[in-house]
Every structure is written in structure tokens, then in C-alpha cells.
């Protein structure tokens, strides 16, 4: 349990680090976009090697496929709801809510993996950490530009990190009582939510901020995460 809490805090804490970096200096969009694309590539690799491949090997394609569909639909509907709620100009709040939406399933999977006795997945942990960092950085910069106080920015991201950390603990606890097929479905749910988020939000934003370099950064992130997966 303590391992789940600790690793969950490490993964989720990068959003707070990103917020702190935004307070220290002003970051150029190409830099943020490059890191964002790198994190997107790492997440694509984690979806393929840590979530989908592991799910098929464990329980087969049916529970995984159901989880994929449910995760994609849940993220799509939740994201549309967030867009409607924050359409009046909210200075980075949609990014923070988006980080919460994709962070919860990621961290649930981290907790389930730890409960299975296989230890923490370095590839998934690294992917989550790297992808969260630019989200915290970019969102915090927008919030500060819109006039939000430093205290409110750090408070918001600390809350996001705390909820995501608790999701890791929840995943660990659920893995003790859930059938293997349901755990595979959770893997699929996380994969579906992440793929929608990557396609609709993370990759387009990376290309917008770092045009011409986002593709290269995505491949580099994918390669690093794939290497970590294969080394484990």
C-alpha cells in the first residue's frame, strides 16, 4: 500500500513541478511543445506495450476491447462537458481538468500493476511523469497571464496531484478484490481514455507550439518508453 502511495505521488507530482517551473520564469512555446510531444510519444508506447499488450496476454481481447470503448467514450463525454463548463475563458483551467481526467485512469493502472506483484512499470511511470510536466507548466503559465495568484495556481495543481495519487491507492485496493478480467478492462479503459486525449488534445497542442519538431519529439519519447518496457 505504501509503495502504491509513494509511486503514485512521484508520478502525479510532476504537475506540481511543472507549475513551480512556470513560476520561476517564462517558457517559450516551442520548448513546452517539444516536451509535450515527447510525453505524447512516451504515452503511445505505454498504451501499446504496458496496457494493450499486457491486457491481451492476461485476459484476452474481449475485456480489453470493452474497456477501450468505455474509456474512449467516458473521456470524450467528460472532455466535452469540461469544454462547455469552461468556454468563457478560464486561463488554463481546462488543461488542469484535462490532466485530472487522463491522470486518474493512468494512476489506477499504476496501482493495479503494483498490486499484481510485478513492481512498478518504469515505462508507464516515466510516461506519466513526462506527460504531466508540460501540462502543469503550460496551464500554470496561462493562469498566471490571466491574473490568477501564484497561491491559487499551486493550490489547484496540488489538488490535482493529490486526487491522482489517491487513484493509485484505489487501483491497488481494487486489484485485491477484482477478477483478472475486470483488471484487464481497467487497462483498456485507461488506454481508450489516453488515446482520445492524445489525438484530440496533447498532440495537436504540441504541434501548435512546436511546429515541425513535434513529430521528432514524439518518436524520441516513444523510443525511450519502448526501451524501458523491453528492458523490464
Structure description:
- Helices cover 86% and strands 0% of the residues.
- The chain has 9 helices and no strands.
- It has helices at residues 2-12, 14-24, 29-59, 61-85, 93-115, 122-145, 150-175, 180-209, 214-231.
- Helix 2 (14-24) packs parallel to helix 6 (122-145).
- The longest helix has 31 residues, at 29-59.
- The mean pLDDT is 83.
Can you tag this structure with a few keywords?
232 residues, mainly alpha, single chain
Which term fits the overall shape? Answer: globular
Helical content stands at: over 70%
Whole-number average pLDDT?
Answer: 83
Order of helix and strand elements from N to C terminus: HHHHHHHHH
> Strand tally, please?
0
Largest sheet: none
Number of DSSP helical runs: 9
Q: State the low-pLDDT regions, or none.
A: none
- Which structural class best describes the helix and strand composition? mainly alpha
End-to-end separation: 22 Å
* Radius of gyration based on Cα positions: 17 Å
Q: What share of the residues does DSSP label as strand, in percent?
A: under 5%
Amino acid at each position: 500500500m505504501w509503495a502504491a502511495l509513494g509511486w503514485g505521488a512521484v508520478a502525479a507530482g510532476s504537475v506540481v513541478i511543472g507549475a513551480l517551473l512556470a513560476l520561476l520564469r517564462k517558457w517559450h512555446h516551442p520548448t513546452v511543445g517539444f516536451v509535450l510531444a515527447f510525453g505524447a510519444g512516451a504515452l503511445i508506447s505505454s498504451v501499446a506495450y504496458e496496457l494493450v499488450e499486457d491486457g491481451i496476454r492476461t485476459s484476452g481481447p474481449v475485456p480489453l476491447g470493452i474497456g477501450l470503448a468505455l474509456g474512449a467514450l467516458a473521456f470524450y463525454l467528460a472532455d466535452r462537458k469540461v469544454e462547455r463548463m469552461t468556454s468563457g475563458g478560464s486561463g488554463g483551467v481546462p488543461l488542469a481538468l484535462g490532466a485530472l481526467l487522463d491522470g486518474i485512469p493512468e494512476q489506477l493502472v499504476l496501482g493495479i500493476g503494483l498490486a499484481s506483484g510485478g513492481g512498478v512499470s518504469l515505462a508507464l511511470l516515466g510516461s506519466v511523469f513526462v506527460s504531466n510536466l508540460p501540462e502543469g507548466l503550460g496551464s500554470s503559465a496561462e493562469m498566471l497571464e490571466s491574473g490568477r495568484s501564484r497561491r491559487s495556481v499551486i493550490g489547484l495543481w496540488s489538488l490535482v496531484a493529490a486526487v491522482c495519487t489517491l487513484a493509485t491507492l484505489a487501483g491497488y485496493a481494487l486489484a485485491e478484490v477484482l477478477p483478472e478480467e475486470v483488471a484487464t478492462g481497467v487497462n483498456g479503459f485507461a488506454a481508450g481514455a489516453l488515446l482520445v486525449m492524445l489525438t484530440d488534445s496533447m498532440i495537436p497542442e504540441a504541434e501548435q507550439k512546436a511546429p515541425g519538431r513535434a513529430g521528432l519529439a514524439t518518436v524520441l519519447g516513444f523510443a525511450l518508453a519502448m526501451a524501458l518496457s523491453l528492458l523490464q
